[in-house]
Design brief:
The protein is built from 7 helices and 10 strands. It folds into 2 domains: 85 residues, Nucleotidyltransferase, domain 5 (2-Layer Sandwich); 137 residues, Nucleotidyltransferase, domain 5, CATH 3.30.420. It starts with a strand and ends with a helix. Strand 7 and strand 8 form a beta hairpin. Bound molecules: adenosine-5'-triphosphate, pantothenoic acid and potassium ion. The site of adenosine-5'-triphosphate has 13 residues, from loops. Belongs to the type III pantothenate kinase family. Its main location: cytoplasm. Catalyzes the phosphorylation of pantothenate (Pan), the first step in CoA biosynthesis.
Length: 260
């Protein structure tokens, strides 16, 4: 069985793939100081709690936080006796390499999203991923990641208002009933919610115009459903897109090893 690890700037998600489906999805906050033993204590408690019969033979990691990778490698080695594939490292091959400016890095989560979008939709896709940042990942006809957009994430925007303005409280995102807020919280929620709806509409429209071919828009990440309830912004929402991409990349590397 394959353990997929998607480590974002805010949250780290573990998901067990049995070859057909994900048996479970476990979520913790991202901390570079978390040790291999700490990961295992957390992981084994939940796997036992859910009574999952997990026989992990392979591990694949996508991490947007370089510092956590070392402890995750130790975790894979110590508890599952395997060398993990780390997306973005030279030993992890991609089905289709990205086409971006020479010398620029591409987030491994975006590479995984591209692999998943191509596998499921066959390219000409823009993925809108709501994480710490809200990123738009453009996937060409042949499945290559060819660039996109990085915007501040929803929670980051709310936090920035609270941090930067003495009279503004911390608020949680929700869809406000009205656009014209009649109290501070309502005004902030309106600014961020309707501001985001405009951002998503505006950017996808401009991406499509610049790309010049019909494209599908796929929403993913925790907040995609919230924005989908406001307007028709996505053709589809797929909450397991990044994880699915990790299974695709893992599978591709397995095929290469077998062919050698
Ligand atoms: N209605 C909601 N209101 C506020 N937060 C929500 C809501 N629905 C989901 N979330 C939050 O969305 C987050 C899940 O998003 P996701 O895992 O895609 O990104 P992240 O973990 O925040 O970012 P990253 O992947 O960059 O670490 C969770 O932290 C969850 O608490
Ligand atoms: C944009 C984020 C933060 C989204 O998680 C991540 O993919 C990242 O750190 N990317 C590196 C820069 C880039 O993808 O162009
Ligand atoms: K994410």
């Amino acid at each position: 069985m394959l353990l997929c690890i998607d480590c974002g700037n805010t949250n780290t998600v573990f998901s067990i793939w049995d070859g057909t489906r994900f048996l479970c999805t476990l979520r913790t906050s991202t901390h570079h100081s978390r040790t291999a033993d700490a990961y295992f204590t957390w992981y084994s408690t939940l796997v036992n709690h859910y009574k999952i019969d997990a026989d992990i033979t392979d591990v694949i990691i996508s991490s947007t936080v370089p510092r956590v990778v070392w402890n995750l490698r130790v975790f894979a080695d110590r508890f599952f006796g395997c060398r993990p594939l780390v997306v973005g490292k030279p030993e992890c091959q991609l089905p289709i390499p990205p086409r971006v400016d020479a010398g620029t890095g591409v987030g491994p989560d975006r590479l995984a999203n591209a692999a998943a979008a191509f596998d499921r939709h066959g390219g000409d896709v823009v993925v809108v991923d709501f994480g710490t940042a809200t990123n738009f990942d453009v996937v060409a006809e042949d499945g290559a990641y060819v660039g996109g957009v990085i915007a501040p994430g929803v929670n980051l925007s709310l936090e920035a208002l609270h941090q930067g303005a003495a009279a503004l409280p911390h608020v949680d995102i929700t869809q406000p009933d009205k656009v014209i807020g009649t109290n501070t919280v309502g005004c902030i929620q309106s600014g961020v919610f309707w501001g985001y709806v405009g951002l998503i509409q505006g950017i996808t429209t401009r991406i499509k115009a610049e790309y010049g071919r019909p494209m599908k828009v796929i929403g993913t990440g925790g907040l995609a459903p919230l924005f989908a309830s406001g307007e028709v912004l996505f053709d589809k929402i797929e909450d397991d897109l990044t994880m699915h991409g990790l299974t695709v990349i893992h599978n591709y590397n397995k095929t290469l090893t077998k062919a050698e």
